[in-house]
Design goal:
By secondary structure, the chain is mainly β. 3% of the residues lie in helices and 53% in strands. The protein has a six-stranded antiparallel beta sheet, with no helix packed on it. β1 and β2 form a beta hairpin. The protein is globular and about 65 Å long. The structure holds 2,5-dideoxy-2,5-imino-D-mannitol.
């Protein structure tokens, strides 16, 4: 980030209709994982993986912003950067933050030797998180447990407090086998004792390397979230729900946290005791296009997490989002027709409910062109019990190409379908029945692509509410 004038930098992108208006992203340049979420003195601090020098990944530093309401953000100076000759000289990779009895402390992965060596480091602040001092004893964990048999994949410490001390989970892999999460304990955040693997992966489909672990109690259960790294575009976030017994995790239920672009999520507990998740919404365009745009990466709207009686994770965008909703349109089956134009905007918040007996393929069209086929559709196929996002794009040769993302979304026999759709320029967050998440990045070609229409029959539509959404930066 250019720290001189973030407001002016943000302003310089005002013509870019693909750039989100109500999701957080830095003033310019690259962002990936959320880091170090911490509720501190009535505000939420969000740190993030950031390249201050360009719109592609590199020079990993921790960008920093603060919010009173989880919706509006104020940019703060970069928190930590690589230190030449230090254990983080190649990059300050992801991690978490804690309040250590009044001292905010960041716990992160330092990388050196082009990331071939990954170790855990800490930094503290004594001026309410404006400046940070790296600990002289860094790295505080210098070696991966021997069972791992490699040094390159050992990262993303997540730390929490229990009665008998601080605990940390770190993502890694066991060479030749699968992903693993290692568990540590400490009394002072500096001296760490390795306990054992919290959980070892057994199946390739859950990833050969587990990064960005989160481990926390939710209701009566424990939840482990991992980002399953394959090195391909199939990297997926999984969650496990189960019990925590004698420092080992015994999962009972495993599921996909998001079927689309959301990756490396991080959770924390806010001032209202809510467990809240932010996730990186990865781009779906070439390096060339990201360089041309001058920015890359968006954070999801924070989501409140709960568990249902089947141990499935439920996710609801924070209710604070409703406070910025603008112009409102409301329909039911009897007041709307198939394909009816509802609104024109690149930035909307949509809530739709279809009754349990609605059948066929139905949903909404967004980013529709006024005079052509280009658009994106969010639909539910009741026969296949599948949620889909697909984009129709006209290529230069006139052909129509499609880009599709799909999620299995079985409904109980008497269960209505609810869709929450957050469209924000090139960001599309879709959550069905609060439990199936399908995020996508879609890039309308033309400024005029802003039609929102009903798609498919309106029979079965119980209610449809659409709000235009403003910029959070004005
Ligand atoms: N991104 C970070 C790593 C993490 C990965 C590096 C996940 O710490 O494992 O930028 O996106």
């Amino acid at each position: 980030m250019n720290e001189q004038n973030p407001t002016a930098i943000r302003q310089s992108f005002s013509e870019d209709f693909q750039r989100p208006q109500y999701h957080f992203l830095p003033p310019s340049n690259w962002m990936n994982d959320p880091n170090g979420l911490l509720f501190w003195k009535g505000q939420t601090h969000l740190f993030y993986q950031h390249n201050p020098f360009g719109p592609l990944w590199g020079n990993m530093s921790w960008g920093h912003a603060v919010s009173d309401d989880l919706i509006h953000w104020q940019d703060l100076p970069i928190a930590i950067r690589p230190t030449s000759g230090g254990p983080d000289e190649f990059g300050c990779y992801s991690g978490s933050a804690v309040d250590n009895d009044g001292t905010p402390t960041l716990i992160y992965t330092g990388t050196r030797d082009r990331a071939n060596i990954q170790t855990q480091c800490i930094a503290t602040s004594d001026d309410d998180m404006i400046t940070w001092q790296k600990h002289p004893q860094n790295p505080v964990i210098s070696e991966v447990p021997a069972v791992s048999n490699q040094t390159r994949d050992f990262r993303d410490p997540y730390v929490w407090r229990e009665d008998d001390g601080w605990y940390m989970v770190v993502g890694s892999r066991i060479e030749g086998k699968a992903g693993v999460i290692f568990l540590y304990r400490s009394q002072n955040l500096v001296d760490w004792e390795y306990l054992n693997p919290l959980l070892e992966g057994t199946e390739e489909r859950y990833g050969l390397m587990w990064e960005c672990p989160n481990f926390f109690k939710l209701g009566d259960k424990w939840v482990l979230i991992i980002s399953s790294h394959t090195g391909h575009s199939t990297d997926t976030v999984h969650y496990f729900v189960g019990d925590y017994v004698d420092h080992r995790f015994v999962p009972e239920h495993v599921d996909v946290l998001d079927y689309g672009t959301l990756y490396a999520p991080l959770t924390f507990v806010d001032g209202q005791d809510r467990r809240i998740l932010f996730g990186w919404l990865r781009e779906n365009r070439s390096d060339r296009d990201q360089s041309f745009a001058g920015w890359s990466g968006v954070q999801s709207i924070p989501r409140v997490l709960t568990l249902d009686d089947q141990n499935r994770l439920h996710m609801q965008p924070v209710p604070e989002l409703a406070s910025i909703r603008g112009e409102h349109f409301h329909y039911t089956a009897s007041t709307i027709n198939e394909d009816q134009l509802i609104a024109e905007s690149h930035n909307v918040d949509i809530e739709a409910t279809y009754s349990a007996d609605a059948s066929g393929t139905f949903g909404l069209t967004v980013l529709g062109a006024p005079d052509g086929d280009e658009c994106t559709r969010v639909v539910y196929d009741s026969d296949r019990q599948q949620l889909m996002v697909y984009t129709l794009t006209t290529e230069t040769n006139g052909a129509i190409s499609t880009y599709t993302r799909a999620a299995v979304h079985p409904l109980a026999a008497d269960e209505d379908l609810t869709l929450r759709i957050l469209l924000d320029g090139s960001v599309l967050e879709v959550i069905a029945n609060e439990r199936t998440s399908l995020t996508a990045r879609v890039y309308p070609h033309h400024q005029s692509q802003q039609q929102v229409r009903l798609y498919g029959p309106s029979t079965g539509l119980m209610s449809l509410d659409i709000w235009k959404m403003p910029s959070i930066w004005q």
